[in-house]
């Protein structure tokens, strides 16, 4: 049986001159084996080595620059694709968040529009009933006192209703800001402000608050001249 040659133990060469000689011999050997591999397998290859003194040596097939450019381009393309995937994912999340925001704002707007429509309807009905109020100039003292009490009571109810609506609207706005990350549209603000009941003097137009038709009929009958 043929004996295998014993492998030499690889140890670091400490002598600078010996190290440079060993580097030169082995560098040529590495480049020769690389050339053989390129010839046999038709592969593209690039090798860059630095001598102990810091000098660079390279081998490339077809050239070092061509192989490096191809390698860099491949890495750049991979990184670009990764960035595009991340951006695409971020864009989809942003679109989903915006759609959720718009859906919530549309729901808020629809609710407020319905409330406004209902309040206007009640206001119109109440104005019709207010036309049936008796002539103040023909009322006696007792009737005037009753009417004054009724108006004071109505004013308090209107004030309370206004405060309730303002508090509810403020709470709704705060919840919307927290839920949607502070997104708040100008259209929503305009609609919100339209729903608010505006107080006037004793003859306010928005007497619709907190008074149903039955209450109004009973209240008016208290001071209608007999």
TrEMBL record:
GO terms for molecular function: DNA-binding transcription factor activity, RNA polymerase II-specific; protein dimerization activity; RNA polymerase II cis-regulatory region sequence-specific DNA binding. Pfam families: SRF-TF (PF00319). InterPro entries: TF_MADSbox, TF_MADSbox_sf. Residues 13-63 form the MADS-box domain. This is MADS-box domain-containing protein. It is found in: Nucleus. One of its GO terms (cellular component) is nucleus. Residues 203-215 have a biased composition (Acidic residues). Keywords: Coiled coil, DNA-binding, Nucleus, Transcription, Transcription regulation. Residues 88-171 form a coiled coil. Its main location: nucleus. Residues 189-215 are annotated as: Disordered.
């Amino acid at each position: 049986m043929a004996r295998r040659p014993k492998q030499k133990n690889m140890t670091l060469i400490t002598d600078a001159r010996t190290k440079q000689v060993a580097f030169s011999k082995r560098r040529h050997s590495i480049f020769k084996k690389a050339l053989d591999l390129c010839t046999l397998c038709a592969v593209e290859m690039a090798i860059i080595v630095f001598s102990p003194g810091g000098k660079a040596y390279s081998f490339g097939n077809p050239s070092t620059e061509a192989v490096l450019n191809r390698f860099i381009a491949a890495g750049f393309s991979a990184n670009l694709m990764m960035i595009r995937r991340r951006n695409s994912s971020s864009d989809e999340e942003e679109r989903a968040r915006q759609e959720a925001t718009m859906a919530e704002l549309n729901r808020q707007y629809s609710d407020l529009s319905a409330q406004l429509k209902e309040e206007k309807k009640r206001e119109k009905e109440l104005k019709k009933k207010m036309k049936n109020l008796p002539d103040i100039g023909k009322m006696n003292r007792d009737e005037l006192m009753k009417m004054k009490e009724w108006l004071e009571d109505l004013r308090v109810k209107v004030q309370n209703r206004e405060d309730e609506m303002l508090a509810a609207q403020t709470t709704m706005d705060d919840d919307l800001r927290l839920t949607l990350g502070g997104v708040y549209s100008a259209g929503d603000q305009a609609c919100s402000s339209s729903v608010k009941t505006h107080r006037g003097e004793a003859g306010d137009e928005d007497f619709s608050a907190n008074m149903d038709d039955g209450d109004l009929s009973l209240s008016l009958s208290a001071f209608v001249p007999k």
